[in-house]
Write a structure and sequence with these properties.
The protein is α/β, with parallel strands linked by helices. The protein is built from five helices and seven strands, in the order H-E-E-E-H-E-H-E-H-E-E-H.
Length: about 150
């Protein structure tokens, strides 16, 4: 990975409200460990975007398990599953990181993971695919899928 890609991942950040105390926190796209609230120290939801240039730094080097959402703007089921994935990421704050990848903007990532349909969901543990599924599902089913895959890993 180039220094530019690493720098881009490190400087990209989102403002996230803590689910426990409501305090707003700046959460970088890539960092070591798990983001925590600066006020109450609760784990924060970690939701970010990645592309061809910064995927390695954002998704493969993350400490928690990474839920990768490979989606497209023109895909109806992708738009339907997105809020469910974000809900799962909020509920499982500190356990998973949600990384969204637009396959039209990141063709190298899509090709690497042999994406043939969107949405395609991957679970990565230190860059290794531990599970994958295609298609949309409700939040409860997605959470069960993530929990089963993580439990089977440990």
């Amino acid at each position: 990975m180039s220094a530019v890609a690493t720098q881009g991942a490190a400087t990209k950040a989102a403002t996230v409200a803590c689910t426990q105390c409501g305090r707003k926190n700046r959460v970088p796209a890539a960092a070591e460990g798990i983001p925590r609230c600066g006020n109450c120290r609760s784990p924060l939801p970690w939701i970010t975007d990645a592309g061809d240039d910064d995927f390695a730094g954002i998704a493969e080097q993350a400490t928690p398990v990474v839920l990768v959402d490979l989606w497209a703007t023109w895909c109806g089921p992708c738009r339907m599953v997105s809020p469910a994935l974000e809900l799962v990421a909020r509920e499982m704050a500190g356990t998973i990181k949600l990384v969204k990848v637009d396959v039209d903007q990141a063709p190298a990532v899509a090709q690497r993971f042999q994406v043939q349909a969107v949405p395609t969901l991957l679970l990565l543990d230190k860059g290794e695919v531990i599970d994958r599924q295609a298609g949309a599902a409700p939040a409860a089913a997605l959470r069960q899928w993530v929990e089963r895959a993580i439990a089977g890993r440990h």
